[in-house]
What we know:
Elements: E1 8-12, H1 20-35, E2 39-45, E3 59-63, H2 70-83, E4 91-95, H3 102-105, E5 109-113, H4 117-126, E6 130-131
Amino acid sequence: MFGAMRRAAFFDLAHPERPPNEDVALRYALEGHRAKGDLVVLLVDALRPLPERLSTGGTLLRIPPSATCDMNKCTTVVEAMARLCIDPASCFGYGDLCAGTGLLSVVGNPRVIACSAESSRLAQERGWPVIMSPSSV
Length: 137
């Protein structure tokens, strides 16, 4: 049913502007997945522009503002994995816990962009890695 060794990385960009250092961390992650030949999928709010600091070299899934809640993002990612015949265990998800856990909870390799000390603590409790900007490490 699933494609052999096919991987995808889903990036949740469907929330308000994040600090520039978080975009740096996302950009490094995007570049790493592109270098490995992974499918890169960017979830964006249909009415918001894609942050200039992030390259558009990926598949865009523009979702209406009414669908940017946690459950709708989860459903969007699950549907995309099913249509692409990609095993969720081989997928990565990037998002922050301030915007919800939907996208992160349906992929095999969640990565948290820490937006607060609380989100870092929650990520640690769930065993989810936290990505940080190389300049903040």
